[in-house]
Design a protein that fits this description.
The protein is α/β, with parallel strands linked by helices and 267 residues long. It has a domain at 20-163 and 216-250: Rossmann fold, CATH 3.40.50. It is built from 8 helices and 8 strands. It has an 8-stranded mixed beta sheet with strand order 1-4-3-2-5-6-8-7, with helices on both faces. Helix 1 (20-32) crosses helix 4 (90-102) and helix 1 (20-32) packs across helix 7 (194-211). Bound molecules: S-adenosylmethionine. S-adenosylmethionine is lined by residues 20, 63-66, 68-69, 87-89, 92, 113-115, 130-132, 135-136.
Length: 267
């Protein structure tokens, strides 16, 4: 099987403060040396192993980036997963496409602003979105759409950057966790090259959060927003070193008891 690329016309209406093209080129190198990102992947893997999937699992990743989270779905469910990768950035999508192809995964690409994306109602068993929603215009509208796209009882697995990042603090963290394995020279070389590019974009993210162009929130605020929109929130916590929040939610059905999700919390 090969990956399927169905490129829908991109919405160029809003000027994004962040250059996601530059971000993409350094993204996986920095994710590889970021233990906090690896924890996010590990927690998602744990979640996937705990859910019950009878036949097929249809998954949409909103702001899927370089494809790391759909790769997890593919590796857990292989041919049983039907996956849709939604992201507005062409470079991110190319990186993801190369990974999916190498892993022989069939993935449908939608290269579009998530704000204007549209899918048939009740078409996904799971919507995943990891540290992307904050950057999408009108995130609450997007969350409302995701609820519509989910089948009754379907899962929303949401991780979102809620607080402003401290670039200096992140740099110290990455040094602390990499010098032993990579050595000083390699660690500093990555941070001076890829790290510098990413930090410049992260500063733009922080500025956009400060201006309110990008969404920022506390953990309870995220939970309240999701409940107001009609989700059943089964797990809510801070993650990603306190900068992000994780919410595991379900689209309500008659039989969807809120306690069910307690068993699905990442551990
Ligand atoms: C920090 S990356 C996260 C990528 C991936 N979810 C992960 O965790 O590895 C944020 C992603 O959101 C995408 N993005 C930003 N604004 C978007 C929008 N309006 N519509 C769709 N994707 C968007 C970017 O292109 C980028 O790939």
């Amino acid at each position: 099987m090969s990956s399927i690329a169905s490129f829908i016309q991109r919405d160029a209406g809003s000027a994004d403060p962040v250059d996601w093209n530059s971000y993409a080129k350094c993204y996986d190198v920095l994710c590889g040396m970021n233990p906090a990102y690896q924890v996010l992947l590990q927690e998602f893997r744990t979640f996937l192993r705990r859910i019950e999937v009878r036949e097929e699992l249809s998954v949409l990743d909103v702001g899927a980036g370089s494809g790391n989270f759909l790769m997890e779905v593919g590796s857990e469910f292989s041919d049983r997963a039907s996956m849709t990768h939604l992201d507005a950035d062409g470079v991110m999508n190319e990186l993801a496409n190369a990974k999916y192809r190498k892993a022989n995964l069939q993935v449908t690409f939608v290269e579009e602003n998530a704000r204007v994306a549209n899918f048939p109602a009740a078409s996904f068993d799971m919507v995943v979105s990891v540290n992307a929603l904050y950057a999408i215009p009108e995130p609450k509208t997007v969350l409302r759409s995701c609820l519509t796209w989910l089948k009754p009882g379907g899962y929303l697995y949401l991780v979102n950057l809620g607080r402003m990042q401290n670039t200096f603090e992140w740099t110290l963290y990455l040094i602390r966790h990499n010098v032993k394995t990579l050595g000083w020279l390699r660690t500093l070389s990555i941070l001076m090259n890829e790290g510098r590019t990413l930090s410049a974009q992260n500063r733009k993210i922080t500025q956009a959060q400060a201006k309110g162009t990008y969404w920022s929130h506390s953990t309870p605020e995220l939970g309240a927003t999701l409940r107001e929109l009609g989700y059943v929130v089964t797990h809510l916590d801070t993650c990603y070193r306190g900068y992000s929040d994780i919410a595991i939610c379900r689209r309500p059905t008659d039989t969807c008891a809120p306690t069910l999700g307690d068993k699905l919390a990442p551990q």
